[in-house]
Amino acid sequence: METKRSFSGSPWEKAVGYCRAIRKGNIIAVSGTTSIKDGKIFARGACDDKGQFYMHVKALETLTQTNSLPVNIKFIIEGEEEIGSAHLADFIKQNKALLKADVILISDTAMISIDTPSIDVGVRGLTYIEIEVTGPNRDLHSGVYGGAVANPITILAQMIASLHDENNHITIPGFYDDVIESSAAERAALAKAPFDEEEYKKELGIKALWGEKGYTTNERTGIRPTLEINGIWGGYTGEGSKTVLPSKAHAKISCRLVPNQKSAPMEKLLIDHLYKIAPGYVTVNIMQAIISRRRLRLSLPITDCVFLPSNRARSPVDFSRCTLSILSFSKDFSSSNSIRFIL
User: pTM score, two decimals?
Assistant: First the structure.
């Protein structure tokens, strides 16, 4: 097959250039450049995750050059993860025979540090919604109506605040019902991963850590479900002052999910709860978020993982913080239940 280049210069310049996107219908125009400093590539996608993909390509190159490739290798590469991988499911279902595999190696995960090889044995899933709270049928003057008409921003803030208790435990009834608790062995393995709390706080510029009582920071970010407010807005946010009692308030809310929590039921649980706690003097509308709302959660027993040779050096176990759309369709790669992962 003849391969034609559609541009000149470094492929990185087009592939990972800084993205300035302008949406026109379903088309996004991308422009920009990359830079290399001290042997490191600085560009959009350089580490998430064109860098990881390139690592696999170079590993395959070495195996083929040294005639040491003992198995068949198949690559599946797609660039739509951050917008929900809209076309990935259909492609996989239409090419089951082509993609059939015994082991899946996924590169879009995390490493504890540049000098600490890590084995990821889990990823958390995601459900994502947008809520709109409406009070009066138009923005009002707070000097005329303030104190007599409910402010949607205040009501939304109260609703959001009620989603956690004093122990930072999520208060939605049934939220934890399907959670499979990590074993003592898994928690012990996770605790062995190097972690400096003071350095962690310093890097983030915070004075104290926050989270569910009874769990460490790594457990909170790896093996526990969470509920986060990703955005909140309403009323007048421009320069200067404007004494508005707004008509509407909005928020984007997501939940990170752990094994056995299914995205669709968890989404319904969240939506039903928000409707239930909304007071009668406002109306609530739940909308689908722009990005994909549902992604699979996966955690593998440590003994079931396909470990790299580095495991012999006792690489720390980590639970990746990301979500991977491809995992939602992984059952299509194999007709058996014995398919294994390297994350």
Answer: 0.73
